[in-house]
Amino acid sequence: MNYLNIKEEKLLPVVIELNTLLAEYHLYYQKLRNFHWNVLGQNFFDLHAQFETMYTDARVKIDEIAERILTLRYHPMSNLSAYLKTATIEESTGKMEDREMIADTLKAHSILLKQMGKVIEKANAINDEGTIDLIGAYVRELEKTSWMLNAWNKDKKGELNTASII
Description:
Blueprint: H1 8-38, H2 44-71, H3 80-86, H4 98-125, H5 129-152
Helix pairs in contact: 1-2, 1-3, 1-4, 4-5
């Protein structure tokens, strides 16, 4: 049954971009777990809780992206080796200062937002409203989280606090 009203061959470019987003989210998720476990210093309580909130959210999105791929009648990428080959988000060391962790997280956000744009572009080309709606909500949420992390990383004058960022 063709419940999607989109020809299967037209879906492939969307699925390729969704699988790339899935890979990026897996690396992002692990980065956040790493930071949650390894954050130290005066900001420990704030960041430990924030990283947990963020990796919990990422875990939900990973499942939703995979289920969207399945809804489109394809199979999601599901091997760590494939994620590592596909993703451009890089693994992080656990030995970073808190501000470095925030800067690294914001860098990952930039990569995720760029990939979400690619997904939306491909989905828009074939009128895949379900994918556009799903990813559009992710964009809005990630932009807000990025704004908050960026605000956290500024001093009272609104200047970027670069004291511990390399």
